[in-house]
Amino acid sequence: MTHPAKSSGFLAEIKDAVTARAALLVVGVLALQLAFITSYIGAFHHPEPSRIPIAVAAPAEAVAAQTAKALDALPGGPLDPRAVEDEATALAQVRNRDVDGALVVDPAGTTDRLLVASGSGASLSQALEQIVGLAEKARGRTVRVVDVAPADRGDSRGLSSFYLVVGWCVGGYLCAAILAISAGARPANMHRAVIRLGALLLYSIAAGLLGTVIAGPVLGALPGPLTALWGLGTLVVFAVGALTLALQGVAGVVGIGLAILVVVVFGNPSAGGAYPYPLLPPFWRAIGPALPPGAGTYAARSLAYFKGNGAAGPMLVLAAWAVAGSVITLACAVMRRGRPGAAVGSGLPDDAPSVPRSTGAADPR
Length: 365
What we know:
Elements: H1 10-17, H2 20-44, E1 52-57, H3 61-72, E2 79-83, H4 87-95, E3 101-104, E4 111-116, H5 122-138, E5 142-147, H6 160-183, H7 190-218, H8 226-251, H9 254-267, H10 282-287, H11 292-305, H12 312-336
Parallel strand pairs: 1-2, 1-3, 4-5
Antiparallel strand pairs: 3-4
């Protein structure tokens, strides 16, 4: 009579239940979590104005130049002033998003006007009001604030565009991740890669439309042309999804974590949402415009409050991510030559071929 083998103990059970690959993935998740905490606190804990572009106009060119020079000499360099021809030019530059504000000097009186645009972010317009107000007070003058591109009543602090873009980004990488969960992190061939990109495109079109409808007509939180915001949403979702597919093609399941690192850990804090670019630390201010969340947020605000002015550059950034992600995804599929990656959760290594579904054959065991 045979007896069942006795358990080797609790430690042996742990070794059997927790593989080295699983342990490494958990360590990777911990590192991603800590990076998330560091990035958000690092970007937001101490916003400080730095070189905010502002136009200065006055009836006399010499007065405008002298005022701009005085603003440029403020301690810490919070402003980047530039003298312009007249008030009309200053107003046009604000509405074109060439500058974030404009000071219109009235030499005949003691009150000047500060043109701001809260549609580009309430924290930025408030920072301009405070900085310019103190500078004017030091010169024995007062300032009257005029909001020439105000945020919509339902758009609290101008953040709706940011949250909308964040939602689109989440949908993009989750859609790509679900494709990895269901059919292998790496597509088996060119046809499968094209099918994934096609499915992602259809999802992007639907997500772009529904997000726009919810933010606009349903909640009344974001104004702007429906079709333009729909197009932007489609591009944001597809760009992030294509990036995720590309990283999965290169790194397998780990690519999902890399996508979160790029889009969430680096992209969201630097997007200019809660604090627009001139209020962020130098590192975040530098990378923000080049990443999908930042490009999407800037373009959404341009479409909603500035008649699309300034949206072309960010749209090109998003298009570049979409094209690069698609090309890398297809290239990875060609290089693998029919060797699909294992589906997430299958327990197989990333480089193991996916287990084909049963076709009615007998169980080999």
